[in-house]
Write a structure and sequence with these properties.
Layout: H1 2-19, E1 25-26, E2 30-31, H2 36-45, E3 49-50, E4 57-61, E5 64-70, E6 77-85, H3 91-106, E7 111-113, E8 118-122, E9 127-133, E10 139-146
Antiparallel strand pairs: 1-2, 3-4, 4-5, 5-6, 6-10, 7-8, 8-9, 9-10
Helix pairs in contact: 1-3
Length: 155
Amino acid sequence: MKKRVVISLLITLFLLCSASLFALEGMPGLSFGMNEDEAIAQLKSLGFTRDMSEIGFFFTQAGSDIRLYFSPDEDELVSWLVTISMEEENIDLFEEEIVELLARLHGYELDYDAEYRETFWKIDLYHFLNAGFDEDEKNYLIFYGDIRHEDIIPY
């Protein structure tokens, strides 16, 4: 069951990424600069629900969650963190598939750190993407960030 949920999440993310025409759009259909209402509506349209017990903008859906970070002085999405639970998953196959999916969206000009199993993309002058496992390899993290807001980077 858990494997089917992760596979369906991957398919959904792939379809969103395939439809994207803009480099600044990322998984799952979020874009740098979106306002709060747009970002929340996008996640709700994908079946994510807001977890009000968490501080800020935290959404969950069957084995994955997304935390949104907005600029403190403007209503603009400046970064977001997607966390996918890896319980009972073939992490090598998952990593291969998710990196391919992200490369189709953001290009094959990327850096890979084999020791830490982390992949890096420079999206443009200010925006970047890091994707990789947490220390225990129990979660796969996809972080879209903005170097102008380094104080918002959650790790």
